[in-house]
Amino acid sequence: MAFRTFHIDDKPAEAPEQVQRKKQKALIGGSLEMRRAHGQALGLQGQFLLDPIFRQEDEERLRAACAADPDRPLTIEIGFQMGEFAVAFCLREPQRRYVGFEVRKKFCEETHAALEAAGVQNALICLVDAREMLSLVLRPGSLDELLVFFPDPWWKPRHVKKRLLTAEFIADAARYLRPGGRLLLKTDVTEYADWAEELMRADPHYSVSRLEDPAADLPFTLRERRCRLHGYPTWAVQALRNTVDVATLP
Questions:
Q1: Domains of the chain, with CATH numbers?
Q2: Which candidate in 9, 10, 69, 152 is catalytic?
C-alpha cells in the first residue's frame, strides 16, 4: 500500500447547525428521516434479515431483540461485510445474541444465506447505518459488546467526517455498554489504530488497551485471513466500560 497521510479532523469548533449538517452527510445513504420520506423498501426477505428503515415491525423486532437480558449477552457488530465472522461467532457462542449492521444489501443477503446454511439461530442482521438506529433501539447499559472490525479509514480530508469512530460515537457507546462491557476495534491501518486509541483514551468512561493478541481471541474475519495470508499486521484496541452507574453519564 502506498503511503497516504492519515488526516486528523482538528478544525475549530463549529456551530451546532454545522455539526448537525456534517453528521447527516456522514451517514451512508442519508438520514432515516430523509430515506423514509424519499426512499422505498428493498424487498428483503429472510428470518434473520431486518429492514428497520422502511418496516416498522422490523424496528420493533430489533428493539425487542436488543432489550437487556443478563442470561443472554448482546453483541453488536457494525459492518459485518461478507459475514464470515458472524457465522463463526454465532456458532461458537450460541448463548449470546448477535446483531449485525451493514449498509450494503448484497452483504446482508449473502450473510443471511450463510447464517441459514450454518443453522444459526441467535442472529439478526439489519440493513441500516447503525449510527442512526442504535439510539432508537438500545437502552443505557443494555449492550455487552460492540465490535467494529476493519472500518474504512476514509483517507481523504473531505471524508474524515464519514469515519465511524468519532469522539461522539465512542461517548454514545459508553452509554449503551453495561459496566465491564467492551468496545473492540480491529484494523490493519496503523494510523487508524493510533488515532482511535487516542480517542478512546480521551473518554473517561473507559479503560483502554492495545491487545497483544490482534485476533482478541475471536474468530477471524475474512479481512484478517487475507492479512495473515499476505503477512500484513493487524491491531486490536479494546475499551472496557468502567464500572460506574450509567445514569451518571452526561
A1: 42-248 (3.40.50.150)
A2: 152
